[in-house]
Amino acid sequence: MTAPLDREAIAERLAATGYVPDRDLATALALMQRLGRPLLLEGEAGVGKTEIAKALAEIHGTRLIRLQCWEGLDRAAALYEWNYQRQLLAIKAREGHDAKVVEAEIFSEAYLLERPLLAAIRQETAPVLLIDEIDRADEEFEAFLLELLSDFQVTIPELGTITATSVPHVILTSNATRELSDALRRRCLYHYVDYPAPDREARILLARLPAIDTALATQIARFLAKLRKEDLAKVPGVAESLDFAASLVGLADLREDPDAVRDALIALLKTREDRARLAPQVIARLVEASA
Ligand SMILES: Nc1ncnc2c1ncn2[C@@H]1O[C@H](COP(=O)(O)OP(=O)(O)OP(=O)(O)O)[C@@H](O)[C@H]1O
Ligand SMILES: [Mg+2]
């Protein structure tokens, strides 16, 4: 990776990829690069956490390696495992050969299945390593990860110790479905990804939906800001706001077509309660207030 970029340069380059960051996020990314520390991004669903890692890899022209976390994720799925089927076939094919020689062969690189963490450590050019939704993994896995994030080396008993040649740029995301350990938090820089303010949300809509009218984008962004203040079971994120806006491209004003707005709500309100709570007159009031 090239020399560290400052905050302004990062913000500019992210915007060029279509990702519109706020000042604090650009600062966090600049610091992460300068200090060589992992960055933990916490926030609600659909606010752009995963996308940050993709955009970061793009601006640095480097590979994005993603580890999606889930309950029960273990070292074998995250780091490496041996290809047992191939090993068994090799053992069968070499029946009668010297056992030591066969053993050395089947525990060699050709029989190793590299998983995301090992892949990240073995890249020549520092990749962006995205550890997505770490809160879904178990606490034991978190402890194991912590070790890896402190020294970026892995010992495979049969092959020896592998140390990262270029330290990956690590982004961890969490939806805060469980409390992460203090140790993990201490190890990382931290940024809370919030819902965007209306002016930034309008810029996001314009960046992602080039066909949208500027006035409409501004109005939708204001509408979203008001809608998120309502008592909702599932507050819509940017992903939902993009779908909502995409289905209204072509309009110049939300007041122009109340039916279209009502139809488009299926992109925003994702529970039966929320649909019921936001009666047409509530929506009409929010639309009016956003004009
Ligand atoms: N600041 C932004 N600029 C441009 N696009 C954005 C921005 N924030 C979010 N998006 C878009 O919103 C969508 C959702 O983003 P993403 O999947 O990264 O959210 P997330 O926070 O990872 O959500 P989840 O918690 O559900 O995984 C993507 O299509 C992304 O491109
Ligand atoms: Mg995500």
UniProtKB/TrEMBL annotation:
SMART domains: AAA. InterPro entries: AAA+_ATPase, ATPase_dyneun-rel_AAA, CbbQ/NirQ/NorQ/GpvN, P-loop_NTPase. One of its GO terms (molecular function) is ATP hydrolysis activity. Pfam families: AAA_5. Residues 35-199 form the AAA+ ATPase domain. It comes from the Bacteria. This is ATPase.
